[in-house]
């Protein structure tokens, strides 16, 4: 398998794996009391529910539309998203954690399916995000890095919440 084909496969596998991580945490999340799932440790922090919702919202409303533009336009330019503004459009704290986790998995599955269907020749097309130019490979790598950071933060928050719940 040529190097770029291996890279494409690895990126798609990693995107899917991060969706699987949500399922792995489902049992842990279920034992966290609701006030800790929807509470904010500090006023500017997001709740656990909002952090999970953010992952789903990005797949549906940011990442896929950006890649659709990349495929449809010659070097599209996209702006960074305002996380707080996007989250304000949805009240993730009013949604059950099971529904949020299902949304994360469903949106990720749709995103992975979309990415896997991008023809090989299109993976070198580019889009500009602020001052950086990304091809599909680089963009997906950035998505994976951001997801990893989000899931790490969620892991810390879940650990803190479980410690708090045991007190």
Q: What does this 3D model show about the protein?
A:
By secondary structure, the chain is mainly alpha-helical. Helices cover 69% and strands 6% of the residues. It has 6 helices and 3 strands, in the order H-H-H-E-H-H-E-E-H. Strands 1-2-3 form a 3-stranded mixed β-sheet. Helix 1 (3-30) packs antiparallel against helix 5 (97-116) and helix 3 (48-72) packs antiparallel against helix 6 (136-166). The mean pLDDT is 91.
Shape: elongated
Radius of gyration: 17 Å
Helix proportion = 55-70%
Average predicted confidence as pLDDT: 91
Oligomer: single chain
Task: Supply database-style keywords.
single chain; 167 residues; mainly alpha; 6 helices; 69% helix; elongated
Brief summary of the model shown:
The protein is 69% helix and 6% strand.
Helices and strands in order, then pairings?
Layout: H1 3-30, H2 34-38, H3 48-72, E1 77-78, H4 83-88, H5 97-116, E2 126-129, E3 132-135, H6 136-166
Parallel strand pairs: 1-2
Antiparallel strand pairs: 2-3
């Amino acid at each position: 398998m040529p190097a770029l084909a291996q890279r494409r496969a690895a990126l798609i596998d990693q995107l899917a794996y991060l969706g699987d991580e949500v399922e792995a945490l489902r049992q842990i999340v279920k034992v966290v009391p609701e006030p800790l799932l929807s509470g904010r440790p500090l006023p500017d922090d997001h709740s656990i529910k909002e952090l999970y919702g953010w992952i789903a919202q990005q797949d549906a409303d940011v990442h896929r539309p950006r890649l659709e533009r990349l495929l449809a336009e010659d070097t599209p330019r996209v702006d960074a998203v305002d996380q707080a503004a996007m989250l304000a459009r949805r009240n993730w704290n009013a949604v059950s954690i099971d529904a949020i986790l299902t949304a994360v998995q469903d949106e990720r599955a749709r995103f992975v399916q979309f990415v896997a269907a991008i023809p090989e020749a299109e993976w070198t097309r580019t889009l500009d995000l602020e001052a950086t130019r990304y091809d599909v490979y680089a963009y997906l790598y950035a998505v994976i890095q951001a997801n990893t950071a989000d899931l790490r933060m969620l892991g810390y928050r879940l650990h803190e919440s479980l410690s708090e719940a045991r007190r």
